[in-house]
C-alpha cells in the first residue's frame, strides 16, 4: 500500500532513510517540527554512546558547530574501574547534577591534576564515600545524555537531518570511527564527549558490571517484597531481570483496585442484587440475565461466553455467597505471575509461572480512572515517550468518557505487553459499580497457556473473530467424549474445539474451576475444587435476550465495540494528514532497547507534577516540553516487536 504526500509516493511502511531519500528526490522537505522529531527519535534509537560519536564526527568535520558553554568540565573524579584493559573514571561534571555523572575512558580526559589527586590515598577514600550517594543515579544517565545532546543541537537541528546523522554510521563511508580526542580540556576547549559506555555496554564479565548486577538484584528483590506486601490477590508476584541492569521502575505505585481520578466517583453500592438460591440453577433471573446479558461462567468458573459479551457478576447485595459460580473476577488473580525483563527491547513483560487453562480469569487491568480530556493530555506525553498505559473504557460504541491509566498506579497488568496473536482476551465486567460507562477490565486466557509463557493481549482489539462461543455441536462432542467442563472459547482455526479438563496431573495449573494448584498453595480455600459435575446442554445454549432490569443500559453483544488501549495514530508529515491506515512511520534502522535510550515515564521525577511540567500551559513549559513539542509528540508510532506471524507491525 502506498501513501501520497503531495506528489511523492513512498511505501507506507518506509523506514526513515527510504522516506527521506524519497522526499529528497521529490524535492520535498520535512517541516522543521518533523525533522526535529525524527532527529530526536533517531538519537534515542541510537543511544547516547553512538549518538555522541556521530555528532562528534560532524563537529570534527566542521559540518555542525557545537555550543561551547561551561559544560563538560571535570569537577571531580569519583571512581575508577578497568574494563578490558582500559581505565574508566566516574566523572562529576562541573555545573551538572549527579544524574549526569558518567564513566569516561582515560584517553578522553585532560585533567591530569585531578587524576593525580584522585590516585592519592586520601582522595580515594573521599571518593568512595561519595560513591554511596551516587549509587542510584546510573539508570537515569543514559536518558539524560541523549536529551542533553539533543538540547545542545538546538541552534542547528533545523539543518541537521537524521539522514545526515545516520549516513555517518555507514561502514562504506566511515569504517571504524577514529577516536576523537580532546573531549575535556582544562584550557577551555570543549567538544562533545564520545566514548561513554553506559552500564549496559559494560562488559558483563567485569567486576564493575557484576557489582551493579548484584545491586540491581537486591533492589528488585526489595521491590518484589514491596509489591507483594500491597498485592491482595491470592497469588504472589515474582520479579526477574536476567537481561540487563534495569532496576525497579520509579514512579510506579502498586494498587489493587481502580483509583478514581479527580472529579470521578466510582459507585460501590449496587441498588439491587439477586435472590437466587443457586445462581446457576436460576440463570434466567440472576444478575447477568437481569442486565440483558448471558451467564458468563460454567460452574467451573471458566468462560462460557464469546468475545465482547459483557460480564455481570453477582454483587454485594446478592444473596449468594463467595462460592457462587458467578463470582470470579472479584475473587482476584489466582495465578502466580512473574514480571520479567524482555530481551528484545519491549521493557518489562509478564509471564505465567503456572499452566493456565483456556477461559480462565488471569488478571484485572487496574489503574487511575481519568476523564477523556485528561487521557488526551496524558496520551500526548505517552506518545512522546513511546509507551502507553491508557485503556479506553469505550465499551459502548466509541462513547468513551473514561479511560484507565495504569502508568503510575497499577497492578501487575501494567507490565503486560501487546501481541498481535495474544493469549489473553479482554472482557468488560460489572460487579458493584453498575454504571455502564465504568466496566472493570478483566483479562481471560483465550487458549491454554504453558508455564513460563509470556502473557499478552491485543492492545488494538481489532476485529479478530476467532473467539466465538461454542456451538451446540462443540458441546455435544465434548460431552460425548466424556470430558468435563467444556471450555467455551472454541478456536475455529483448529479442527476440533479446545476442551478444558479437570487436572489430575498435580502440576502447577489453573484448574477447571479457575482455582490454582500452586507450588505454595493459595491462602484462600479453593472453592469446589475437584467438582467434575457436567454442565447441562441448556447451559451451553445462548440465553435469549431479556429486558434489562438492573442496568440502565442493555448490551447487545453483536454491536459492542471492545475495550482497547488508547493509542491514537497521528501523521508524521505535519503539513498534510494522510488517512490513518496509510501513515508513514518512524521505523528506524537500529532497533534499540528502549530501556536504554528512550525517555521512560517511570524515570521521571514525579507523576502528575511531571506530566504537568511536560504538558503544562503553553509558554510556561519546562525544557522537556521544548524537547518534545505537541506537534511532534502527536506523531509517534511504535514498531511492534511481538514477533507473531500475523504481526501488524505497529502498536497502533
Ligand atoms: C502497558 S506497557 C507494557 C509494559 C512495558 N513493556 C513496560 O516495561 O513497562 C505498553 C508499552 O510497552 C511497550 N510494548 C508493549 N508491547 C510491545 C510490542 N509488542 N512491541 C514493542 N513494544 C511493546 C510499548 O512501549 C508500549 O507502549
From TrEMBL:
Residues 574-588 have a biased composition (Polar residues). One of its GO terms (molecular function) is histone H3K9 methyltransferase activity. One of its GO terms (cellular component) is nucleus. It comes from the Eukaryota. CDD domains: CD_CSD, SET_SUV39H. One of its GO terms (biological process) is methylation. Residues 636-652 form the Post-SET domain. Residues 72-130 form the Chromo domain. It holds the Pfam family Pre-SET. This is Histone-lysine N-methyltransferase SUV39H2. The lineage of its organism: Eukaryota, Metazoa, Spiralia, Lophotrochozoa, Mollusca.
